[in-house]
Amino acid sequence: xxxxxxxxxxxxxxxxxxxxxxxxxxxxxxxxxxxxxxxxxxxxxxxxxxxxxxxxxxxxxxxxxxxxxxxxxxxxxxxxxxxxxxxxxxxxxxxxxxxxxxxxxxxxxxxxxxxxxxxxxxxxxxxxxxxxxxxxxxxxxxxxxxxxxxxxxxxxxxxxxxxxxxxxxxxxxxxx
Length: 176
Description:
single chain; mainly alpha; Arc Repressor Mutant, subunit A; 2 domains; two-stranded parallel ribbon; two-stranded antiparallel ribbon; 60% helix; elongated
């Protein structure tokens, strides 16, 4: 499976979602200002985007033609072949911070359930091993095996729920 490459959310939105190719820095800046109002100062947006462009050029993801204000950037085949995903943007210090300490209990609970699940899965493996080694005990071991399977399904459900909730809480990507 191909590993995904993470790029900034704004570059993902502009290059992947909007499909920009053959653009100048100013065109990219203007498109970013129309798509995302995080950077209302055009000069700051241009600087941020130009740093991204330079990084992409150094990685071989963009190539340039022309000079000065006539310089245009084109996506390379290498960039098009990448499995690209947007990075989660960091929240600004001025934005309201969510109390992550309140949710740490969810991670703790999930880790406890995971540990219990590991133990129960070990029990299941051992019951199955004993069933293979001692077929005459199968009648006695099967109820315990079934009980362990039920506990594992219950614990697996809890782990999944907590994982989904934690991912939802902590994957609040600042979308433009």
